[in-house]
Design brief:
Shape: globular
Mean pLDDT: 87
Number of domains: 1
Structural class: mainly beta
Strand order of the largest sheet: 1-2-3-4-5-6
Order of helices and strands: EEEEEEHEE
Number of helices: 1
Largest sheet: 6 strands, antiparallel
Helix content: under 10%
Low-confidence stretches: none
Amino acid sequence: MIGTLSNGTPCTGAWKYRDRVAIAAATLTCQDGTKGSVVYYSQDSLTGTGIGRGLDNKGRSLRIWTGKNVLDYLTPKGKKLAELPCGDTPIPIS
């Protein structure tokens, strides 16, 4: 997987589905040395988007979304731009 932190730092990682326990988990490493782990706890039934949470090595909370239709999941009805629901005010993304 590839992505960025909220400050734009690039990150890469891998996720794996564990069939025996029906759960997906991911690890990631960012160019600034940040490392994290995530557990996917839900899947959106309309888009198939996996939804996960975790922590980085600095104790900060991580929210992560994955899937082929993740932008559809993050785009509110009636809007043209996707939004990251990271706090009280969603952050527009394109």
